Known about the structure:
Layout lengths: L14 E4 L7 E6 L9 H12 L3 E5 L16 H14 L4 E7 L1 H10 L5 E7 L5 H9 L19 H10 L13 E6 L7 H10 L4 E6 L10 H20 L1
Parallel strand pairs: 2-3, 2-4, 4-5, 5-6, 6-7
Antiparallel strand pairs: 1-3
Helix pairs in contact: 1-7, 2-3, 4-5
Amino acid sequence: MFGEIRNAQGEQLDYSFHKGEKGSKNIVVLGHGVTGNKDRPFIVSLAEGLAAAGISALRISFSGNGDSDGEFTDSTLSKEVDDLGAVLNALNGYTICYVGHSMGGAVGVLRASTDHRIKSLVSLAGMVHTKAFAQTEFGDVTPDEGFMWDEPACPLSQAYMDDLAQIDTIVDHAPQITVPWLFVHGTEDDVVPIQDTYDIFARANDPKQLIEIEDADHVFSEHAPVMVEKVVNWIKAQVHHSNS
């Protein structure tokens, strides 16, 4: 549909397209979290829900993840922000909503704070305090030797830790975003605390909305249908508003 999408390093980014209503120029880009990819079940479910509602969706795997080119050890938040820019370049002429989960949520905030091609934004259990996250989750792992959450396919790199430490927090970028913004977070998230969302929501401009999903974990395991319904309904409202 969009041909090859390559980042600044020339690495090809894997994507899957879900076609919505014929002739519509609205599209939702879905970005995953650290150690994830475009095929996480709840991301697939969300893309299918959007397409069923007539809204096209594009699931992407950031470089070094899934079937995209690149090395996982080169994957950093900053690099993924640049990857998203390459995706936006390929969607010239579309009205873009970006939905990001976990670190993919942080990608969206950093991109949307300077890139006005993103016309609406959704943060799903979005990472906010990046330095604190790195220390909490991986502080006892030796970079370039150990693994993220003991997954051999996901080696922890010094580059990843340094990037999150240098960024520290994305909360100060919130006031630079002026597009409609939806925050969704589960109350039982033990990876990214719901307090992260409270902190950045407080700094966000209107129009904004916060949806807490009771008892949901970080990947909305048993609560994916609820998450999908809430997000699809919100995006449908944004599309209707922009078309009216």
